Amino acid sequence: MCDLRRPAAGGMMDLAYVCEWEKWSKSTHCPSVPLACAWSCRNLIAFTMDLRSDDQDLTRMIHILDTEHPWDLHSIPSEHHEAITCLEWDQSGSRLLSADADGQIKCWSMADHLANSWESSVGSLVEGDPIVALSWLHNGVKLALHVEKSGASSFGEKFSRVKFSPSLTLFGGKPMEGWIAVTVSGLVTVSLLKPSGQVLTSTESLCRLRGRVALADIAFTGGGNIVVATADGSSASPVQFYKVCVSVVSEKCRIDTEILPSLFMRCTTDLNRKDKFPAITHLKFLARDMSEQVLLCASSQTSSIVECWSLRKEGLPVNNIFQQISPVVGDKQPTILKWRILSATNDLDRVSAVALPKLPISLTNTDLKVASDTQFYPGLGLALAFHDGSVHIVHRLSLQTMAVFYSSAAPRPVDEPAMKRPRTAGPAVHLKAMQLSWTSLALVGIDSHGKLSVLRLSPSMGHPLEVGLALRHLLFLLEYCMVTGYDWWDILLHVQPSMVQSLVEKLHEEYTRQTAALQQVLSTRILAMKASLCKLSPCTVTRVCDYHTKLFLIAISSTLKSLLRPHFLNTPDKSPGDRLTEICTKITDVDIDKVMINLKTEEFVLDMNTLQALQQLLQWVGDFVLYLLASLPNQPSPTSEPSPTSEPCPTSEPSPTSEPSSP
């Protein structure tokens, strides 16, 4: 059962829908412990749930939910024998890693590109050693969002490629695929996927003196290295950091580790709080590709405190005696890496889950000032869920509250101390796992009863924005999704029907400013984006069928053109399909023989098996073209009056059939 709700006007954070599956019996379905959840760039949510049989045996289930159609849930029997501890999507959103408390890691991939068909053919195992952190290796692709250039004409100015090295490369510089995991005993294991399908796996200790790892997280550096942060769960112990380098030597995977500077949480150095927060419950890097900033949360049974730390280079003071002996030392002061605290919260209610944004917003002071000046707030906040059932969005660096959501009907003041809040008679239902969408405009949470909730996060975070500025921010995020290929469902949550016409027009205008080559690459994405936008308004809903029809015709055209190959493969000339399109554009003669004179007929000859396989498609295309030709004289003239039943809507955006696209 899905409870779908309309957006609340002007709300900072409100409930989009709640999913409760009535066919699931509470006696047989129970939330897994621990509860794992992951949100892909395709807006697919993976989460875990255990199925208990009559003889009390547990089946570890992985559920895949499409956020646009939450009522269609696909369940995968994971075949994990122990509790699933980690879920991790890859950058394409088509593969999923799952790891369990027995050290088994499985790689799930879509079968035939279907979200309801999954198969696992590869994996790795560190037998008997629970996995506490898991990540795909970095592929070297990193974009930077330049909010201050949102008015630029070129997408290359708005979204620039950042120089970032892959974790490992094949011959020719192609990134090598694989994953890295950290175990509870202090081991790091890396598995590499070779193009042949073979899996190279290696395991190494993070340091010589292995210790228990209760919490861990993984981040990547621009130089291709990997940084692992670990904690043993006690706030009295240091948070350790390690640099991990992966290489392939003699067809074997090699792992080299190096110890980096560690830190103690500041709350443990305060004499008044030394024993107040005995356990570290959450350890997260602020971004997957930002190993210099980390978020820590220490908790007691009733309260928590959150701290944000940053790794900086600091000058090392040198005694005057050494400066006199070696003038070179005096000219260039040596530096060391040192962790410095950026911010910390006051005492909070006990934190139950943390979710970090994936939008690539830089956190330098300059970029934060630009974001503040442009009033662009998506990606600046992280989410904290509490045991009282509330969810807070706080600034990634200052940890100041930006928005609050209460699951109960009676809201409480944001600044009310946690210790002054009245306690409920029983334990409150709270979120145990959370994930932010890839544009940070939506949040999914799964509570202690297994209920899934999707929250809508306002792009303005409660700040008053002009309509034009709000439209520009939504347009900027739509362009980001169009360039990256990410799904844009979470952006549509904030599009009102009155915005659709303007967004479609501006999106088409920005698209036409790009180069012809880029337009060809993005031609299908913009059609799909326009179709999904037009569904939101009764004024534009009639265009949806046209956009989908054009997408279908482009797919057929691409399929047929892909069958045609030049007679000589090394020819620099255009492909036969492109040449035929160019000739048909220039020659208006209806005599097909005169058109064929300019073509190389041998390039249009296909083998009989291919023609037989495409016979029905070719017949359909022929019938469709003849139908179009027969229907042309019957088309109404442009001056004909609109139907009295049609709703008058201003339309200045061109018809879908007049937009540039692949022939």
TrEMBL record:
<dbReference type="Pfam" id="PF20718">
    <property type="entry name" value="Med16_bridge"/>
</dbReference>
<dbReference type="GO" id="GO:0016592">
    <property type="term" value="C:mediator complex"/>
</dbReference>
<keyword id="KW-0539">Nucleus</keyword>
<feature type="domain" description="Mediator of RNA polymerase II transcription subunit 16 central helical bridge">
    <location>
        <begin position="477"/>
        <end position="638"/>
    </location>
</feature>
<dbReference type="InterPro" id="IPR015943">
    <property type="entry name" value="WD40/YVTN_repeat-like_dom_sf"/>
</dbReference>
<feature type="repeat" description="WD">
    <location>
        <begin position="77"/>
        <end position="110"/>
    </location>
</feature>
<dbReference type="InterPro" id="IPR048616">
    <property type="entry name" value="MED16_bridge"/>
</dbReference>
<feature type="domain" description="Mediator complex subunit Med16 N-terminal">
    <location>
        <begin position="124"/>
        <end position="411"/>
    </location>
</feature>
<protein>
    <recommendedName>
        <fullName>Mediator of RNA polymerase II transcription subunit 16</fullName>
    </recommendedName>
</protein>
<keyword id="KW-0804">Transcription</keyword>
<keyword id="KW-0805">Transcription regulation</keyword>
<keyword id="KW-0010">Activator</keyword>
<feature type="compositionally biased region" description="Pro residues">
    <location>
        <begin position="635"/>
        <end position="653"/>
    </location>
</feature>
<feature type="region of interest" description="Disordered">
    <location>
        <begin position="634"/>
        <end position="663"/>
    </location>
</feature>
<dbReference type="Pfam" id="PF11635">
    <property type="entry name" value="Med16_N"/>
</dbReference>
<dbReference type="Pfam" id="PF00400">
    <property type="entry name" value="WD40"/>
</dbReference>
<dbReference type="InterPro" id="IPR048338">
    <property type="entry name" value="Mediator_Med16"/>
</dbReference>
<keyword id="KW-0677">Repeat</keyword>
<comment type="similarity">
    <text>Belongs to the Mediator complex subunit 16 family.</text>
</comment>
<dbReference type="InterPro" id="IPR011041">
    <property type="entry name" value="Quinoprot_gluc/sorb_DH_b-prop"/>
</dbReference>
<feature type="compositionally biased region" description="Low complexity">
    <location>
        <begin position="654"/>
        <end position="663"/>
    </location>
</feature>
<comment type="subunit">
    <text>Component of the Mediator complex, which is composed of MED1, MED4, MED6, MED7, MED8, MED9, MED10, MED11, MED12, MED13, MED13L, MED14, MED15, MED16, MED17, MED18, MED19, MED20, MED21, MED22, MED23, MED24, MED25, MED26, MED27, MED29, MED30, MED31, CCNC, CDK8 and CDC2L6/CDK11. The MED12, MED13, CCNC and CDK8 subunits form a distinct module termed the CDK8 module. Mediator containing the CDK8 module is less active than Mediator lacking this module in supporting transcriptional activation.</text>
</comment>
<dbReference type="InterPro" id="IPR001680">
    <property type="entry name" value="WD40_rpt"/>
</dbReference>
<dbReference type="GO" id="GO:0005654">
    <property type="term" value="C:nucleoplasm"/>
</dbReference>
<dbReference type="InterPro" id="IPR021665">
    <property type="entry name" value="Mediator_Med16_N"/>
</dbReference>
<dbReference type="InterPro" id="IPR036322">
    <property type="entry name" value="WD40_repeat_dom_sf"/>
</dbReference>
<comment type="function">
    <text>Component of the Mediator complex, a coactivator involved in the regulated transcription of nearly all RNA polymerase II-dependent genes. Mediator functions as a bridge to convey information from gene-specific regulatory proteins to the basal RNA polymerase II transcription machinery. Mediator is recruited to promoters by direct interactions with regulatory proteins and serves as a scaffold for the assembly of a functional preinitiation complex with RNA polymerase II and the general transcription factors.</text>
</comment>
<keyword id="KW-0853">WD repeat</keyword>
<dbReference type="GO" id="GO:0006366">
    <property type="term" value="P:transcription by RNA polymerase II"/>
</dbReference>
